[in-house]
């Protein structure tokens, strides 16, 4: 048993009236001790559920991210003048609405904007469709790659995906606790703000509940992130809704611009969000879109792709971004990016199959 960790546990688990906020340094220490399994399983489980019940603060989340910065992986910057876009999405995936994020990443990369994403397998508590499964459905298999191989793929294609079991096994080691406690732990909130990229970037964090937005802005300001977006997205993701107002906060160097966007004003709205059907059906819809064939996912792709092409600075307006997204999809240029990704991953495996992980 770690007596040092027990003192940290006592601070967060002493009840409504006597529990105390951890300092940023204490939160970082607690996170490092959990990631490195210096605390016992009983202590880790108790800490995670106690912290969940009490709710983390921005200072504590900043400490968690400090620990991730020390122990976690990081992709090196692209030799590009464009800032990368780094997306923080819920690791437990999507269960109700069709994800647009893979298409957004491919559209941005096709236009020369680097994109960094991270995630794991099907995960509690939602057990939704994770990004890794969508990538594999498109023939893009990030499994089994070392960090050096992911970096090489990123340098060649502009798309990088950090897969927890391979690139951050310490964090993957805490996943079983999510299932055992039956709740998302504080790490699930921190993951929305994790920026595993050493370069100029725009961080995009999705959320569901309004109080979470305050946690995001407070934490990212403490982290000194100069440019980030907060998106009240579908199922906590960065995907913009089409059936309701899209609420976005654009933060640059301490200032905030608030956007309220309506898809119907651009001919892309609907009375309900496009549902996530069976994964195989969804993958087929994605493939149809990439082939330039008619697909019911087109409005989803245009609304989200157009927005992020605009926010990346690749297009001068949302209207221009929507038009550019359609051109890229219909012309087959995004499919070419998929092919290039598949080929580069295959080449990386052939060149360095025995690289240490």
Automatic annotation (TrEMBL):
Residues 6-67 form the Glycosyl transferase family 3 N-terminal domain. The keyword Glycosyltransferase applies. Pfam families: Glycos_trans_3N (PF02885), Glycos_transf_3 (PF00591). Gene3D superfamilies: Nucleoside phosphorylase/phosphoribosyltransferase catalytic domain (3.40.1030.10), Transferase, Pyrimidine Nucleoside Phosphorylase, Chain C (1.20.970.10). InterPro entries: Anthranilate_Pribosyl_Tfrase, Glycosyl_Trfase_fam3, Glycosyl_Trfase_fam3_N_dom, Glycosyl_Trfase_fam3_N_dom_sf, Nuc_phospho_transferase. It is an enzyme of class 2 (transferase). SUPFAM superfamilies: Nucleoside phosphorylase/phosphoribosyltransferase catalytic domain, Nucleoside phosphorylase/phosphoribosyltransferase N-terminal domain. GO terms for cellular component: cytosol. GO terms for biological process: L-tryptophan biosynthetic process. Transmembrane segments: none annotated. One of its GO terms (molecular function) is anthranilate phosphoribosyltransferase activity. It comes from the Bacteria. This is Anthranilate phosphoribosyltransferase. It comes from Halomicronema hongdechloris C2206. The gene is trpD_3.
